[in-house]
Amino acid sequence: MITDKRAEEAFEYLRDTTDAIGAAKGELERSEILRKRMRKRMFLAAEGSVAQREAMAENATEVESVDERYVDAVTAYATLSAKRDIETIALDVWRTESANRRRA
Question: Dihedral angle at the C-alpha atoms of 65, 66, 67, 69, nearest 10 degrees?
Answer without folding.
Answer: 90
